[in-house]
Amino acid sequence: MSDTPKEHTELIAVDTITVINPRIRNQKVFEEIVANIAELGLKRPITVAVRNNETSGELAYELVCGQGRLEAFKALKQDKIPAVVITASSEDCLVMSLVENLARRQHRSLDLLRDIKRLKDSGYSTREIATKTHLSVKYVHGVIRLLESHEHRLLRAVESGKIPVSVAVDIAEADDIGVQTVLRKAYESKVLRGGRLMAAKRLVEARAQYGKGRGNSEPGVRKNLSVETLLRTYQNDVDKKKILLRKAGATRSEMLFLTQSLKTLLSDENFVTLLRAEGLANIPRTIADRLTHIEEAKA
After folding, report:
1. What 8-state DSSP symbol labels residue 267?
2. What is the structure's pLDDT at 101?
3. Structurally, how many domains does the chain consist of?
4. Domain end (from 224, 254, 273)
5. Domain of residue 23, CATH code
6. Could you say which residues form the signal peptide (predicted)?
7. Is 30 part of any domain?
8. Order of strands, edge to edge, in the sheet holding 7-13?
């Protein structure tokens, strides 16, 4: 990388700018950007690097950051856009664009994977990528391993939004026992819940049986499940059912306590009179039906 580039701000023609690191845009988010710029104007200039057009000899520019803003100006039929113009090589521009995208709070998981891989392919070490992107060395190493080891099932799951990148990386790094720990921690930290957790479990089972996979299944590389694995899976299912039973029992006890408490209160004439004075003469039908059911059961 070169030293900090010299820069200045000017209006430049939108059709002279080339996007060197194009990304797929969320249409709804893009429409919001267009609406905001149309109403309030451009709050922050884009950043470009100056180039010479080899064909015409005129100035041309490579986009460093601000693709959404540039495309919004084009959608609004604007000929020129405010831009911070810097002096930097194409390689530096690409790296700055990748780093800027990685530093965003919101980005597509697949873009994150590909951007880290592009930095790696550009000759940067794992530690250098971690420093530039403010990600941990372990995380960057895991992402690169995910791509280079051809974890097709995990990559498809990340791309479709079934599991986060961090969970995919942890699964790729773990052994059979460690994978269960990864899923448990993801559940406890609320990263995977409900349908996403079940999808992750099915993914892990498919990966264990058929390998990393390019297609939906690869019977030729099927793995035999050991007795220990089967017993561990059975024990995990038993433990989960025990937890569900304990939760169901606790909920039932709480419901009985609340119902009995309400029944006792409603049998107190002074309490009922107070409710009427406050305009609370009726109770929800579901509760009334439950109280009636209790009375009928005792009769």
Report:
1. T
2. 65
3. 3
4. 224
5. 3.90.1530.10
6. none
7. yes
8. 7-13, 80-86, 46-52, 59-65, 17-19
- Cα torsion 282, 286, 288, 294 to 10°: value is -170
Burial of 183 (0-12, 13-18, 19+ CB in 10 A): buried
The answer to whether residues 129 and 211 belong to one domain is: yes
The encoded tokens of residue 190 equal 């609320």
85 and 1 within one domain: yes
Residue 144 host element (H or E): helix 137-148
pLDDT at residue 219, rounded to an integer: 39
Of 136, 146, 150, 152, the C-alpha closest to 102 is: 136
Asked if residues 90 and 117 have their Cβ atoms less than 8 Å apart, the reply is: no
Cβ contacts of 36-40, under 8 Å, gap ≥ 24: 37/69, 37/72, 37/73, 37/76, 38/76
Residue 158 identity: V
Tell me, yes or no, whether 31 and 49 share the same domain: yes
Series of mean pLDDT values for 10-residue runs along the chain (299 residues):
63 88 73 85 86 71 86 90 85 72 56 74 82 76 78 75 80 81 85 82 81 51 51 74 85 82 81 79 70 62
**Could you tell me if 30 and 51 lie in one domain?**
yes
What is the DSSP secondary-structure string of 62-121?
Answer: EEEE-HHHHHHHHHTT-SEEEEEEE---HHHHHHHHHHHHHTSSS--HHHHHHHHHHHHH
5 falls within a domain: yes
Q: Are residues 231 and 272 in the same domain?
A: yes
112 and 208 fall within a common domain: yes
Q: Specify the residue for token string 């942890």.
A: 170
Task: Please give the structure tokens belonging to residue 2.
Answer: 């070169």
**Secondary structure class of 128 (helix, strand, coil):** helix
Within a domain: 207: yes
User: Residue 81 has what pLDDT?
Assistant: 92
* Residue 144 token pair: 């690169």
Whether 83 and 120 share a structural domain: no
Host H or E run for residue 37: helix 27-40
Structure tokens at 216: 């939906």
